[in-house]
TrEMBL record:
This is Ribosomal RNA small subunit methyltransferase G. Belongs to the methyltransferase superfamily. RNA methyltransferase RsmG family. It is found in: Cytoplasm. Keywords: Cytoplasm, Methyltransferase, rRNA processing, S-adenosyl-L-methionine, Transferase. InterPro entries: rRNA_ssu_MeTfrase_G, SAM-dependent_MTases_sf. Its EC number is 2.1.1.-. It holds the Pfam family GidB. Specifically methylates the N7 position of a guanine in 16S rRNA. S-adenosyl-L-methionine binds at G76, F81, R140. It comes from the Bacteria. Its main location: cytoplasm. It is an enzyme of class 2 (transferase).
Length: 205
């Protein structure tokens, strides 16, 4: 991927970042393109990597700015989306990545060191073993947000920001969680580059 493509996409999405942040975004994407497939992290490259992963991760920024957390924890970070992207975008935000798979955790730690992200911490462990507390938890996975998972996530933070797909599926999850006593709201995500439905499911006790 050419750096100019990244710059153009960020501008069209109306994201305003300093030059050093754009440079770190680009270096991270370069590493993903080179190592993502061999390490089993992601097969995405080029525009698919840019649109479906980096830009998708940034779509939660308005919500995060509104909530104003001083710390977030990204659970099941995998290749570093959205956690590493949010750490680059918000240098004053303390971001912790929790990844239970050793190979992925090692990659995340390598990225933290190579990109010199001083506001990023990597924890190689299962979420249920983490005793620290954070202001919010991000979650970007295909897993259904059922009450059991929500209880586990809320043990480490009072707010869940879950990246989700189709509205009909998200609304079913929302209904299930509200019936279990949780407060939920759904935020629709819009983008010039969005080729499929994307939503955020915000969950609180």
């Amino acid at each position: 991927m050419e750096k100019e493509r990244l710059v153009q996409a960020l501008q069209q999405e109306q994201h305003q970042f300093e030059a050093w942040q754009v440079d770190v975004f680009y270096r991270f994407l370069e590493n993903i393109e080179r190592m993502g497939s061999p390490l089993g992290l992601t097969e995405a490259v080029g525009d698919a990597l840019l649109n479906d992963h980096l830009l998708d991760s940034l779509r939660a920024l308005p919500i995060i700015h509104h909530l104003q957390p001083s710390s977030i924890v990204d659970v099941g970070s995998g290749a570093g989306f959205p956690g590493i992207i949010l750490a680059i975008a918000c240098p004053d935000l303390q971001v912790t990545l929790i990844e239970r798979m050793q190979k992925r955790a090692q990659f995340l730690l390598m990225m933290q060191l190579k990109l010199k992200l001083t506001n990023l911490t990597v924890i190689h462990d299962d979420l249920k073993n983490v005793k620290r507390h954070f202001d919010a938890v991000t979650f970007r996975a295909l897993t259904t947000m059922d009450p059991t998972l929500v209880r586990l996530l809320l043990q480490v933070a009072p707010q869940i920001i879950a990246y989700k797909g189709r509205r009909d599926v998200v609304m079913l999850e929302k209904q299930l969680l509200e019936e279990a006593g949780y407060r939920c709201r759904v935020e629709e995500l819009e983008s010039l580059y969005l080729k499929k439905e994307r939503h955020l499911l915000i969950v609180e006790p």
